């Protein structure tokens, strides 16, 4: 349909409407304003939603999108702010050293209008994760670049580097961990179990409780120690709906502390840490990425909303699917539909997410309990 036809179409609809339709149309915005604080509903764009109380990041994205920037560029503004601020030490440089003490970056961006995705994983020596992801999306036919080759690409396309991504804090954390016999760590079914490597594989056990007498002494495994303490807020995952109603999502993280070098989590995986479909809505996720990426929770959330589920139910359902297999996992999702309705769900911890809409004076932080 050409735009002129569309105008005529609307004109035709309008003049054929009975008089009381006009009253309903003009009262609708007022009604939604009244119920707004109860249903967490925003009828207007733009809109910014982010995992965790990353308030400065949401402000940066809001400033961009409210000023007329596209959803994609606003996501980049927001996530870049977090990288610069090193949000929680788990975004940008200077945090989450791996077993070798090195910090690497994972990031993703997705344009729901075109279904284009760009991502970098285990990227070394470059601080600008989200900008590197945008370069992959906008200047290559690929979706995901990894490791040192991702760094070379990012630098060749104009990003600063090579940069030392370690900080005195990350090096100190790593040194303490080494002094503590590299405990806890992400190894399992390996020997030696209680000291630093090199490691060699022992018998594979399907379940931690499934012991095999001859090897049992080796299996005082590291998996018995809580890795929970290693995780903090770990990922910024952000969704933006711009003034045109277009949606983009993005993530940035430096991954899990003391990860095995080469590990890539859910951050740069579309459908896991973030996902969006232009006609439906968006989802942002955070938590135990190694587990969550097996379930593509954000793909699940958006697909459930496409099938008619409310954001709250879609979010809860995505968490429940993981919890049935991994009752101890930590995770959270926030779901956002095209009407601007948003809701979170979490498992194993209390989750917070941040929102900025035209009806808010500043960023508002919402708290979600596992029992919600
Ligand atoms: C990188 O920075 C850390 C922390 O400031 C420092 O300890 C380390 O020696 C640096 N590495 C290189 C190769 O310069």
How much helix, percentage-wise, in residues?
Answer: 25-40%
How many runs of DSSP E, i.e. beta strands?
14
Q: Assign the CATH topology of the domain at 68-166 and 228-368.
A: Glutamine Phosphoribosylpyrophosphate, subunit 1, domain 1
Overall SS class: alpha+beta
Bound molecules: 2-acetamido-2-deoxy-beta-D-glucopyranose
Shape: globular
Task: Specify the CATH homologous superfamily of the domain at 68-166 and 228-368.
Answer: (Glycosyl)asparaginase
Strand-and-helix sequence, N→C? HHEHHEEHEHHEEEEEEHHHEEEE
Q: State Rg.
A: 23 Å
Count helical runs: 10
Name of the level-1 CATH class of the domain at 68-166 and 228-368: Alpha Beta
Strand order across the biggest sheet?
4-3-2-8-7-1-13-14
Please summarize the sheet with the most strands: 8 strands, mixed
Compute the average pLDDT: 85
Task: Please describe what this structure looks like.
- An eight-stranded mixed beta sheet has the order 4-3-2-8-7-1-13-14.
- Strand 3 (116-123), helix 5 and strand 4 (144-146) form a beta-alpha-beta unit.
- Helix 3 packs antiparallel against helix 4, helix 5 (129-139) crosses helix 6 and helix 9 runs antiparallel to helix 10.
- Residues 1-42 and 210-226 have low confidence and may be disordered.
- The protein is α+β, with helices and mostly antiparallel strands.
- It has a domain at 68-166 and 228-368: Glutamine Phosphoribosylpyrophosphate, subunit 1, domain 1 (4-Layer Sandwich), CATH 3.60.20.
- 33% of the residues lie in helices and 20% in strands.
- It binds 2-acetamido-2-deoxy-beta-D-glucopyranose (NAG).
């Amino acid at each position: 349909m050409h735009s002129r036809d569309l105008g005529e179409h609307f004109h035709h609809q309008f003049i054929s409407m009975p008089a009381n339709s006009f009253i309903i149309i003009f009262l609708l915005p007022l009604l939604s304003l009244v119920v707004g604080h109860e249903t967490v509903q925003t009828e207007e764009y733009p809109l910014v939603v982010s995992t965790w109380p990353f308030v400065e990041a949401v402000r940066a994205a809001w400033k961009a999108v409210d000023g007329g920037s596209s959803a994609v560029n606003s996501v980049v503004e927001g996530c870049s702010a977090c990288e610069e601020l090193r949000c929680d030490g788990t975004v940008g440089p200077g945090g989450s050293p791996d077993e070798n003490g090195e910090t690497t970056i994972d990031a993703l961006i997705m344009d729901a209008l075109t279904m284009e995705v760009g991502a970098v994983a285990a990227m070394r020596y470059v601080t600008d994760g989200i900008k590197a992801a945008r370069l992959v999306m906008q200047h290559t036919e690929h979706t995901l670049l990894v490791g040192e080759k991702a760094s070379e690409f990012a630098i060749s396309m104009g990003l600063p580097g090579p940069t030392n991504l370690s900080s005195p804090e990350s090096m100190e954390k790593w040194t303490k961990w080494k002094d503590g016999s590299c405990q806890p760590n992400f190894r399992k079914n390996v020997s030696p179990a209680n000291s630093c490597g090199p490691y060699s594989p022992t018998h594979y056990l399907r379940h931690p409780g499934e012991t095999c007498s001859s090897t049992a002494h080796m299996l005082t495994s590291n998996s018995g120690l809580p890795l929970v303490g290693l995780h903090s807020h770990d990922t910024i995952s952000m969704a933006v709906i711009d003034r045109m109603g277009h949606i983009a999502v993005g993530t940035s993280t430096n991954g899990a502390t003391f990860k095995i070098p080469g590990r890539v989590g859910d951050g740069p995986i579309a459908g896991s840490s973030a996902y969006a479909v232009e006609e439906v809505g968006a989802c942002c996720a955070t938590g135990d990425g190694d587990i969550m990426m097996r379930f593509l929770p954000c793909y699940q959330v958006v697909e459930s909303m496409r099938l008619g589920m409310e954001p709250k139910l879609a979010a809860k359902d995505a968490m429940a699917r993981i919890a049935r297999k991994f009752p101890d996992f930590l995770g959270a999702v926030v779901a956002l539909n095209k009407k601007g309705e948003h809701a979170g769900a979490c498992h194993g911890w209390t989750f917070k997410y941040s929102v900025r809409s035209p009806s808010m004076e500043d960023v508002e932080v919402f708290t979600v309990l596992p029992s919600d």
